[in-house]
Amino acid sequence: MTWFHAARARLRLLAPRAAEARIDDELRFHIEMETQRIAREQKVGHDEARRRALATFGGVQQHRETLRDGRGTAWFSGLSLDLKLGFRMLVKYPGLTMVGGLAMAFGIWFGAVTFQMFGAITTTKLPLPDGDRIVRIQNWDRKTSQDEDRVLYDYQLWRASRSITDLGAYRDASVNLRGADGAAQSEIAAEITASAFRIDPERPLLGRVLTESDEAAGATPVVLLGYDVWTRRFDRDPQIVGRTVKLGTTFATVVGVMPEDFAFPMAHKVWLPLRLNAAGAEPRRGIAIKVFGRLANGMSLESAQAELTTIGKRLAVEHPATHAQIQPYVTPYTQLGVNNTDMLAIKGVSYFFVVVLMVVVCSTVALLLFARAASRESELLVRSALGASRRRIVTQLFAEALVLASVAAVVGLALAQFALVRLGRPYIEMNYGMLPFWVDFNLSPMTIASALALTVIGAVVAGVMPARKITRGLGTRLRAGTAGGGGVSFSGVWTAVIVTQVALTVALPAVAMLARGETKRVESYDAGFATKEYLGATLAIDGSLDETTTPEARTALEGRITASLDALRQRLMAEPGITGVTFVDALPAEDHSYRRVEVVSLPGIASRWVAAARVHPSYFDVLQAPVLRGRSFTNADLSQEARVVIVDQAFVDLVMSGRNPIGHRVRLTSGAADSNAAQLPSYEIVGVVKELGLASAAMPQREPGLYLPVVPGSQGSNKLIVHGRGDPLSLAPRVRELAATVDGALRVEKVTRLDHVTTPLIWLNSLWVRIIIGMTAVALLLSLAGIYAVLAYIVARRTREIGVRVALGASSRRVITSIFRRPLTQVSLGVIAGSVLIFVASIGVGNTTQFRGTGVGGVLTPAEVVLLGGYAIVMLGVCMLACVVPTMRALRVQPTEALRAE
Amino acid sequence: MPSRPQTDALRGSLDLLILKTLSIAPMHGWGISQRVQQISNGVLEVNQGSLYPALQRLEKDGLVTSDWDTTDNNRRARYYRLTTTGRRALGVELESWRRFASGLEAVLGVP
Predict the structure, then answer these.
(1) Which single residue of A296, A408, A429, A636 could bond A105 by disulfide (Cβ 3.0 to 4.6 Å)?
(2) Residue A109: predicted pLDDT
């Protein structure tokens, strides 16, 4: 128990006030007892007895000091003094506080945003009771390395599992919901089993949640509404429960309203019972569902996994055709795929990058602190002479850096919180859909702790590094009495720091220029037709479960979709103001699917990847893009036997090398190593059109493309394009209305003007540009401050020398030259290094897959060289500006004063 | 047991005296100084002021522990008592002190 007694004693001693009081009480008791004893034994008065007692005790104050030192808390009071001094330094050197603090705040901001983003995405904490025991059960296909969601058959067996309880399933089933105003609008819904409401046991705001009886075949169709839908679509109608609402083509009774924060299973707002016709399920057939559950009492993820693995092995034996390669996995609920190693790798690399950035930023701040410490050298020498150890002085300088870094941390964290919650989340949700309910962008304690660790790293780099340098040989300098006389020198390390900084300042704008160029290119992307006159939308009908379980039912559903789309087209064409309606599988400027194309009739031409689109025969007419050669698609081409394609001009130029392609035959494969390629049918090229946005806007180079005719609604061709007079967006309500009339289940989503297709890409690019400009500004500021600090220090130290020179008749020019030599060398080296960096990087970029042969990167054009050269000269000038003030100060040195200083 | 330099006879002997005194009964600082004087018939006089840093050191090493208590005449005082480790350390120190003393005796006994 020694350690316990010792630890208790040490802990007690660490509480400074309590320890002080204890010493006082103990010593007072001792003196009083001794006084009484002396008074009693030596028969003297109280005062005399006390005097003698104090004498016997020996210097009370001295013993008290010994006790205090013995407590080992001297360092503590020392540190608090250092911190106090650090705060004073912040106020005393506002320039350094601003520049250094800003740079560190930038590093910490960047770190906090990165930590929080990855933390939120890779979190395993579910904000539900028992959250860490909620799991997903997913099948993984080892052969294709993909998740397999058609698990209805397996689900039956999993339900018998002893290690997982409350097993349930859901599937996304967005529906057209007709609101109080009578308008139908698509809402994110989930068809879900009643067990979900045991996993997330939140009580409904009104009515009840879904129950098992709702899942029975023949039960009254019911719907549970989310708070948001209830508010937005039904005006918070308190009488909503029991009312019948229209969902797609059917009606359902509202049974309840859930509270605002309920979004289980992901980010859903409407819930319908999941009616699984599980009895007739066949292995790896039927609908895709997601399965969830709760680990049973006393069961761990591992034991559940072991049980599922056994079930998986049994299935592999019983159904080798479908399950030989299937492995079930139990993962934490927040992990959406079976395999998340990629994400963890990206996370690791990003964290490493954050730390490197912080170290780079802080080494420049270190330079500033070094210059400040150097200008306070005499103070440090005096402290050293008074007995401060080297460690003590290093601690003091570290404390100063820590104070600066802490202030920066507060600013950085506040800005990170703002950027994530106010800017990041709304943007992501606007462009990529709602985030799962457990993703929280508010800074988590873990993020704050990581950011604080980063702060300490920054303080160590910025404080300890210069402190160790400046205190080296302090004793020698003290003996030599050379304070202020040239003891401290700015050696190679600092030159390297400044050169790196200037190089970055020169090189970063080139990156910004590249990104800006990309943005401009995307902005000026020419899809080959008047995109701003067209409206684009995604049409969707998700069949009910019965309609998707068998292949026959799916074919019937496709037929229904085709009929609905055709009817919609007829209705739209009849509208005044609408001049054209067509369908395609991906809008112009979006990413298209790629097919490997081989020109069968010209064996000499190597096969290559070609962007492909499936279009309605009316496509080219509606886009007002005349066929350049050959003919357009006709309805006859829609038949299986027709096998015709139309290619674009880029195909003619890049694949056919300018030959007339009409009449040539091509074969389309999905990959290079398609063994059945020779058996695949070939297609005849019947026409040539201009380039119409088959190459995505993100691709910098021309891409060959081809078109296949398609019946609307089949093979993914569910994008609607409408051409009208006036602003196409004004047509949107009418399109929705007609879609709802044609087929209640037909949902109109992602309505956009075709020239806005590239907006998210432009936003991302400009964000990138802004970040780089921010980084450049920080780098520039740091270079300027660094150069200024070093030069100011040198001038201050050489005051006497300059004075003597002036006294001996040196001209101003000579004085300036002697001062300027060092910063000029450093900045020039930096500019050269930066230029080399740009040159090398541009060659590198030019050789990447994305930019090869696009004119981006590669050897710089003369115009770019002139631009960058001009920028380098401006940089040189700006850096020299940092030298002006110290130089003026040097020139004002009066010889008499400088010599009198001696 | 934490090591203490045996060569520091003075400091070592003070620690030894304290440990020995506390092995009889728990006692407060003033009491320890009185007890030592009393037992040695006034030959050994503990420097009262240096007693407390020694007690603090012993407490930090876990050889003694202390708590507030009341004296016979109802005064509040801090009482020190020996821990098990302290008792063991006393044995070791006594042994080494005796060896040291007999060695010294042998040297001084040489005519």
Answers:
(1) A408
(2) 93
Q: Please tell me the distance from the alpha carbon of residue A514 to that of residue A236, in angstroms, as a whole number.
A: 51
Q: Which residues contact A851 (CB under 8 A, 6 or more apart)?
A: A700, A701, A845, A857, A858
Is the Cβ of B92 closer than 8 Å to some Cβ of chain A? no
Structural domain that includes position B62: 9-103
- Residue that the structure tokens 């060659």 belong to: A843
Taking the C-alpha atoms of residue A346 and residue A369, their distance in angstroms, rounded to an integer, is 34
> A61 — contact with chain B (CB < 8 Å)?
no
Of the candidates A5, A56, A62, the beta carbon closest to that of B83 is on A5
The complex's ipTM works out to 0.88
Residue B111 included in any domain = no
CB-based burial label for B7 (10 Å; 0-12, 13-18, 19+): exposed
Q: Is B28 on the interface with A (CB under 8 A)?
A: yes
Q: What's the structural domain count of chain B? A: 1
* Chain A residues with CB-CB distance to B69 below 8 A: none
- In this structure, is residue B4 part of a structural domain? no
pLDDT digits (tens, 9 = 90+) for B11-62: 567 888 888 889 888 999 999 888 888 877 777 677 777 888 888 888 888 8
Task: Give A539-582 pLDDT, tens digit per residue.
Answer: 887 665 455 566 777 778 788 888 888 999 999 999 888 899 99
Residues of chain B with Cβ-Cβ distance to A23 below 8 Å are 52
**Which chain A residues touch B65 with a CB distance below 8 Å?**
5, 8-9
* CATH code where residue B82 lies: 1.10.10.10
Residue B14 maps to a domain = yes
Task: Please indicate if any CB of chain B lies within 8 Å of the CB of A27.
Answer: yes
Which residue is it, tokens 């992901």? A266
pTM score of the predicted model: 0.68
| Of A30, A144, A21, residue with least CA distance to B27 | A30
Tell me the shortest Cα–Cα distance from B67 to chain A, in angstroms: 10
Q: How far apart are CA A718 and CA A724, in angstroms?
A: 19
Start-to-end Cα distance in chain B: 39
Task: Please check whether residue B48 touches A, CB under 8 A.
Answer: yes
Position B86 in a domain: yes
Q: How many residues are recorded in chain B?
A: 111
- At A370, which amino acid appears? F
With a CB cutoff of 8 Å and minimum separation 6, the contacts of B56 are A13, A67, A70, A71
Phi then psi for A647, rounded to 5 degrees?
-110, 165
Partner residue opposite A2 with nearest CB, options B66, B77, B83: B83
Q: A332-345 burial, b if ≥16 CB within 10 A, otherwise e?
A: bbbbeebebeeeee
Q: DSSP label at A656?
A: S
In terms of residues, how long is chain A?
A: 902
Is B78–A25 a contact, with Cβ atoms under 8 angstroms apart? Answer: yes
- Domain regions of chain A by residue span: 2-72, 80-122+343-489, 131-339, 495-524+762-902, 531-761
Amino acid letter at A404?
L
Question: Encoding tokens for residue A367?
Answer: 């330079």
Q: Residue A243 has what pLDDT? A: 92
Which run of H or E residues covers position A409?
Answer: helix A390-418
Residues with Cβ within 8 Å of residue A1, at least 6 apart in sequence: B62, B83, B84, B85
d(CA A165, CA A134): 10
Q: Is there a contact between A29 and B84 if contact means CB atoms under 8 Å apart?
A: no
What string of DSSP letters covers A508-523?
A: HHHHHHHHHHHHHHHH
A88 with A398: CB under 8 angstroms?
no
For residue B18, give the 3-state DSSP assignment.
Answer: helix
Q: Output the CA angle A38-A41-A44, nearest 5 degrees.
A: 60
A859: left (phi over 0), alpha (psi -120 to 50) or beta: beta
Inter-chain contact A71–B84, Cβ cutoff 8 Å?
A: no
